[in-house]
Amino acid sequence: MNIVTDGTNSDLSEDLNFDHFMIGFPISKRWGVALGLIPVSNGYFKIAEYMYEDDPLYDETVGEYVSYHGGSGGFTNFFLGTGLNITKNLSAGVNMSILFGSLRRYNEYVFSDYYYTFQTNTTEKLQMTGIGFDAGLQYTTSFKNDYFLNIGASFSSGKNCKTNYESFGTRYNIYSSPDTLGIPINDTTKAHLPGTIRAGVAFGKKNKFMASVDYVFSKWADAEFPGSAGYLTNTQTLLLGAEYTPDRMSNYSYLKRIDYRVGAHIGNNYLIINDNKVNEYGVSIGFGIPMKRRYASPSAFYSKFNFFADYTRKSLSGAPFTHKENYYTIGLSLNLYDNWFFKRKYD
Known about the structure:
Number of strands: 20
Helix content: under 10%
Number of helices: 0
Radius of gyration: 26 Å
């Protein structure tokens, strides 16, 4: 659910989205492979504005009108990756990701005085495909009493993408057939999406608790794609999280086997609106709910339902009036663990 306000007016919208799908499996004791689909953007929206004679902003020279704005489509990443334990404490991984998809937008203005005005309609379409690579390192060390420390960093290369941008507009009234507005655009200029640097550290006790902090930086100011000039800035985000499990191996209390999670994040969006950055901050809570126990071994992993609720606020910095967006998100995911590649000693 998203609530947008400019200090005077507000609007509420609701949406349901697929977040991601991933699968991983071992090749050997020290080598694994993973693949998945991760949506990058969702371009769906519908907005309508009605201007009537009694509206304070009504203009006699324009008259009453209705404007429609909408969009559809989105971009998705398919990735294929592999990871390797180099030593007991050090591991490395690399991913190849393929971006694909398209966005469509339309704008239409319909005037009540259709004799002496022109109705206008414009459409845009952006298709984009590109390949990028991610690489990362993680160092893990253990202490007494099952305490551990993880330190990791990763780098994502920028994507040089093939694009096809189309734009077309028409105008018409009761006396004429549709006329073209301007010159139709069919642009295949290459686009560039930025790379990302990530670093994080986690400390905890095995099967009991974990606390982590992560930093993410993306150089969006160097991005180039149709319509982006002057509207992008670099992003920085700080993420904090913690998880606590009262007793993961409890045979008497189901509530003690649940993972309890809290998180927070603060940073800025990649957009610039009216020369102002869009700041973001949010908090979240979550639960990892075990499914029916299937293994007798105390050290075994269990499949889980994961539930989370997140509140995120976006607002302009330094603006004379404050544009605000409040996002309320509820999510559900499923983690399945199984011994698909278990080699039996006896048949």
